[in-house]
Amino acid sequence: MTIEPLKLVSSKTLVLPSANIDTDQIMPAKFLSMTTKNGLGEHVFSNLRYTDTGTLTNHELNSESGKACKILVAGDNFGCGSSREHAPWGLTDYGFRVVISSSIADIFKSNSLKNGLLPVTINTEVHEWLMEHSGVHVTVNLEACLLELPNGMGSHSFPIDSFSRYCLLEGLDEMGYLLEQNNQISEYENR
Amino acid sequence: MKKTLFDKVWEKHVVVSETETHPATIFIDLHLIHEVTSPQAFTLLEDRGLSVRRPDLTLATIDHSTPTLLNKDGSRPYVSDEARIQVDTLLSNTKKFDIETHGWDSKYRGIVHVMGPELGATHPGATIVCGDSHTSTHGAFGAIAFGIGTTQVGHVLANQCILMRKPKTMAINVNGELNQGVTPKDVILHIISLIGIGGGTGYAIEYRGNVFENMSMDGRMTVCNMSIEAGARCGMIAPDEVTFEFLKGRKYTPENYEDSCAEWLSLSTDEGALFDKEINIKAEIIKPMVTYGTHPGMGIPIDSTVPQSSNPAEQASLNYMQINEGDKILGMKVDKVFIGSCTNSRMDELRAAASILNKKKIAPHLKALVVPGSAQVKASAEKEGLDKIFKDAGADWREPGCSMCLGMNGDIGLPGELIVSTSNRNFMGRQGPGVRTILVSPETAASTAIAGVVEDPRNLKKIK
Predict the structure, then answer these.
(1) Do B288 and B443 meet the contact criterion of CB atoms below 8 Å apart?
(2) How many distinct structural domains can be found in chain B?
(3) B interface test, pick of A109, A131, A178 with most B CB neighbours within 10 Å
(4) Same structural domain for residues B279 and B315?
């Protein structure tokens, strides 16, 4: 089973400056009743994008330029709260391939890596610059683990688990790797 | 090499060791599943022609999308067709793969994190996962228990293993004597307000000290449950006599119980073992807590005032809550009270709430909802007459489920309403669009229900 490989993502950024954007904000519980992954992009950040009566707000997420952004920059501690994978499903279905923050919650990070969404954690200084410069064109180079900024702001390396990086670059899911360990798992079970 | 409780349990479950290039493969002893985060995982299995490797280590229930009311004809008022389909999908998937399922007809059905321990399926020293972030609850028994996403639910269904790098460890030591009126919920809300909503990110927490040693299992579960609200996937407490007493004679208590207890005792952190981080808290400084913002880290003692916001996010949070710096939460008019959720829906908590509501009436303008955590809790509570106390007070006594904690089943508040809740998250809109949530202990929730405004349970006891 393959997912779309992720090597280089070059795009304008969309900034959601709030800290602690939890997965309830990303994908409210009322959209968790579905039994497929389809169409969740329509509901991602629905509290920002729709009024109480269901009409579209003028939030940047609803604009054509917003929809073209593949890189989301968000406030600290992005993706905290519920383990719902509907959050990264919604973000990727919307069109995002990268999320950048100064810290990203553990379960959300793990879920994102399994869905072709690259979580990039960078230092506060770079993070603050990105937060203040919404819409700048940046490049995320996963092969080199570098975030390349414009305006002479340089390149900044970011940490990523080597196995997750390999899977993203090759477009592989982890299931295949686990299935190959069948013998070791059987041995463990028979201990 | 001196080891922590986490180290010992982790090492026992390594199938393939972690290397620089690959995470560890960890065997999972118990996989709990429910209707919300499993359907796409079963689809993944089917797409790849895979089966469930260990149905014997998998337990299912329905809790999130389930109505907590019954229609007069006995049918169930699902919030939507999707919710009904989701429940039916779980039931058909688990039937197909021969997974023990506690559905509508089971006397054990309940919130997955209430049901597992009640069945005795939650064992000390085990690895437990579930597609639910509050899986940390089971750490109260000395298990490594954490929430996973749906892709990993698929991995565990197919392989009974997950890929993971070992997290760092953090000890949170709380020693001393708790003040009167301070409950396990107040202890964990205090901890989260201290270390922050992201303070535990990357860590597995071990709660240590005489305060946790003196807690009941229900209390320990409340504490471990909310580890994720500080960002830690996993929170643990070393198993001891309290743990063993709880597990005695349950459906899935190991047959060689005595031998197991001896082994479980040896899991405790070795004297002098090092944690990556250690935090010491004096029990005496903890007071009954309330939250005032839109995440569980924004908590203060119930008798203090709302602090100045330190950043724009906190200010946005205060704006949403319609609360200002310097305000008192105590005395704020409340529209609804919710007593329930995987944090606070067990017998200890229902007894505590009932003792306050006994022979009292809830405020006339207010609605109160009491939702037991499981069919077992419901039956025990009814045997003790707690249901009667709640109903006589004017509260709703419902069927077990997650209910208003996340409102997936339609149990939600109206825009602008202020809900005092014993659940775990006060996120914007969590209990309904525009709803404002204050997290408290069951004692504070019950006192608030009577007063109609946020009330300190210590005051109510004085009046009595």
Answers:
(1) yes
(2) 3
(3) A178
(4) no
Task: Please judge whether B40 and A84 are an interchain contact, meaning their C-beta atoms are less than 8 angstroms apart.
Answer: no
CB proximity list for B128: less than 8 A, separation 6 or greater: B28, B29, B30, B31, B32, B116, B122, B135, B138, B143, B144, B145, B146
d(CA B94, CA B45): 13
Are both B435 and B318 inside the same structural domain?
yes
* B258: exposed, middle or buried (Cβ count in 10 Å: 0-12, 13-18, 19+): exposed
Cβ separation B152–A162 shorter than 8 A: no
Tens digits of residue pLDDT in B299-342: 999 999 999 998 888 999 999 999 999 999 999 999 999 999 99
Q: Do B428 and A32 touch (CB under 8 A)?
A: no
Q: Average pLDDT, whole number, for chain B?
A: 97
Distance between CA atoms of residues A124 and A2, nearest Å: 34
Indicate whether this model's pTM tops 0.95: yes
Q: What is the ipTM of this complex?
A: 0.96
- Residue range(s) defining the domain that contains residue B43: 5-164
Of B270, B285, B300, the residue that ends a domain is B285
Q: By three-state DSSP, how is residue A26 classified? A: helix
Question: Which domains are delineated in chain A?
Answer: 8-158 (3.20.19.10)
Residues of chain A in contact with residue B27, where contact means CB-CB under 8 angstroms, are 185, 188-189
Average of per-residue pLDDT values in chain A: 96
